[in-house]
User: Fold this.
Amino acid sequence: MLNKRHTEPHHEGLRVLFSREQIAERVQEIGAQISRDYAGQALVLVGVLKGAAFFLTDLARAISLDCTFDFVAVSSYGKSTKTSGAVKLIKDLDHPIEGKVVVLVEDILDTGVTLSYLCKLLRQHNPRALVIATCLDKPARRLERIDADYVGFTIKNQFVIGYGMDFAERYRNLPDICLMPPNQRD
Ligand code: IMP
Ligand code: MG
Assistant:
């Protein structure tokens, strides 16, 4: 499907993998599922900056439980379309999560290196529960043994941009999830 929304010039010619309507519908379903699974409990949503920002804010509004947010940021070394394996925490939690039900919210679970690192780190703070919600899952690329509890969409080994996801920091603001044309990648 080619996107023809003329209000978005930098969107032109990009193939849309998941439209904003499909994303919105799926986020509502996940929010409803989380609300059922943790009925009566308070949640802390921990977003991984910057990619998970849109997913977290949409998901939070689809959850009908008492919710607070926090954010962490990590840097991974290596080229922009690859994860090198080394992860470093560059922004820690602002508030303690001990005894809390934590939903770690990520844009995309790829090799799993980032989320296994973060899970290990967050577990050291003794949360009551720790679960993962990821907008996208690319199981074919997994290097670490890790799965998400809530997955928006499972995709093949494709590089995607939009809805928070970037290529060299660009395209995060595309409202749809699009495929990055291979000839424009490094
Ligand atoms: P992992 O540590 O390999 O699981 O990498 C996860 C991170 O790599 C994600 O949070 C993204 O920032 C980035 N990433 C992986 N695949 C893509 C993609 O297709 N588009 C944009 N970013 C991606
Ligand atoms: Mg990311």
Notes: Helices lie at 20-37, 53-62, 113-123. The chain is about 20% helix and 30% strand. The chain has a mean pLDDT of 92. Residues 48, 51, 107 surround magnesium ion (ligand 2) (CB under 6 Å).
